[in-house]
Design brief:
- The structure holds two protein chains of two kinds.
- By secondary structure, chain A is mainly alpha-helical.
- Chain A is 54% helix and 4% strand.
- Chain A has a two-stranded antiparallel sheet.
- The longest helix of chain A has 28 residues, at 81-108.
- Chain A starts with a helix and ends in a 5-residue tail after the last strand.
- Chain B is an all-alpha fold.
- Helix content of chain B is 78%, strand content 0%.
- Chain B is built from ten helices and no strands.
- The chains are: A mainly alpha, B mainly alpha.
């Protein structure tokens, strides 16, 4: 089908020209004033038929815009649209990671004074507590006939009422308490030195505490 | 290549440095956009200034246009914002009710302007509208139907071919001939108006 450029332009305006011919025609319109004038008038006719025509525009309307843009740099497609979003997200994540790294030593690092104080508090605290006239019995809640079992070496600490535990857990707790006393430590000690070597149940010290003597 | 694809192709050309492609977009949308702006700014001369400013802003921002929406919808938003900013700069309050871009296409944009337009503009508008309307009325039936189905009803060539019971090539030819006939009458009128203004 041999069409004139005007015929092709008519199809192009309607979005009915194939991509290849459209590209060719658009390139041709760069230099063909007559085709550009057709483009303008046909769109004016379209505006009239669609009720979009209010009044004639000043004759230099489009030229005025072209003149204003003549000195402007040609706009470039922003290739970083989506990439920018992605990298912005990465930047935020990286910032959070860095902030976290900077914050962690402040909480648990050995070089920080507040953390040292915090760790030392339990070992020094008993020496600073004033003597109280109250005895353990005064502080112990009245639990009737419920029996309490506490680990040896923890007699100064109130573990509160407890149901008799699984014997193995009980053994572990006793060993742990002894290890803590032996090493003068205040917190939990590593599991292995406490759990092994295993000693018979009978060799472990047992302290039975109860509000009433067992019958 | 559909109408939207055509716009996208023109935008890509602008983004690759072809300023003439932007000129084609201006000429395509200049009447439509100015009529939308005239809803906010009733003085026709000021509306044209703001429309030009909108196109200039669009050109500066077109590098960021990714084609997620239709080009006209994007352009329309720029125009409405430019019109509102202009009203604020003039110490006038912009309207709170916005027209949706798709509704704006259907909106009879001239209705408000006509009340306040100058007699000269009214005469020129009337001449252009009447010329187009008279020419379409005078077209042979098959040309008038083809151009009306295309321009007023917005049907594709395939749909028009189905409606008229003829090949797509015939539709293509009829629409072109109708356009040529309208253009023949419109051209001297516009030349005269250019001389008068």
């Amino acid at each position: 089908m041999n069409e004139t450029p005007s015929q092709q332009l008519s199809a192009l305006i309607d979005g009915e020209l194939d991509s290849h011919n459209a590209r060719f025609l658009l390139r041709r319109m760069n230099a063909d004033e007559a085709l550009s004038a057709h483009w303008t008038r046909w769109h004016l006719a379209r505006a009239c038929l669609r009720g979009e025509f209010v009044a004639p525009l000043r004759s230099d309307f489009a030229q005025g815009i072209a003149a204003a843009l003549a000195t402007e740099a040609a706009p470039r497609r922003s290739i970083g649209g989506r990439v920018l979003h992605w990298s912005a997200g990465m930047a935020v994540a990286a910032s959070v990671a860095v902030a976290a790294l900077l914050m962690v030593p402040r909480v648990s690092g050995p070089e920080m004074a507040p953390a040292d104080n915090f760790a030392a508090t339990p070992s020094t605290a008993p020496a600073q507590v004033a003597a109280s006239p109250l005895t353990e019995r005064d502080l112990r809640p009245d639990l009737g006939r419920v029996a309490h079992t506490v680990a040896a070496g923890t007699d100064a600490r109130s573990l509160g009422p407890a149901i008799r535990l699984d014997p193995q857990v009980d053994v572990y707790l006793r060993r742990h308490g002894m290890a803590v006393q032996r090493h003068g430590e205040t917190g939990f000690v590593p599991y292995l030195p406490v759990a092994a070597p295993q000693r018979p149940w009978s060799m472990l010290p047992t302290v039975e505490t109860s509000s009433e003597p067992a019958h | 290549m559909g109408d939207n694809e055509l716009d996208q192709a023109l935008v890509k050309r602008v983004q690759s440095g072809e300023k003439h492609a932007f000129d084609l977009l201006v000429r395509k949308y200049q009447h439509r956009l100015t009529s939308v702006i005239s809803r906010y700014i009733h003085d026709w001369s000021e509306a044209q200034d703001v429309a030009q400013e909108s196109f200039i802003r669009a050109y500066r921002a077109i590098g960021n246009f990714r084609g997620d929406s239709q080009f006209y919808t994007w352009l329309y938003k720029i125009a409405v914002n430019t019109a509102k900013n202009w009203l604020v700069s003039q110490g006038r309050r912009p309207p709170t009710d916005d027209i949706d871009a798709t509704d704006a296409v259907q909106y009879d944009a001239g209705s408000r302007l006509r009340d306040t337009d100058t007699p000269e503009h009214e005469l020129m508008r009337h001449e252009v509208e009447q010329t187009v309307a008279r020419t379409v009325e005078a077209l042979p039936d098959e040309l008038r139907m083809a151009i009306t189905l295309r321009e007023v009803d917005g049907l594709s060539y395939e749909e028009i071919a189905e409606t008229m019971g003829c090949p797509i090539g015939t539709v293509r030819s009829r629409i072109f001939r109708a356009r040529e006939a309208i253009d023949l009458q419109l051209r001297p009128l516009l030349d005269n108006q250019r001389v008068r203004s």
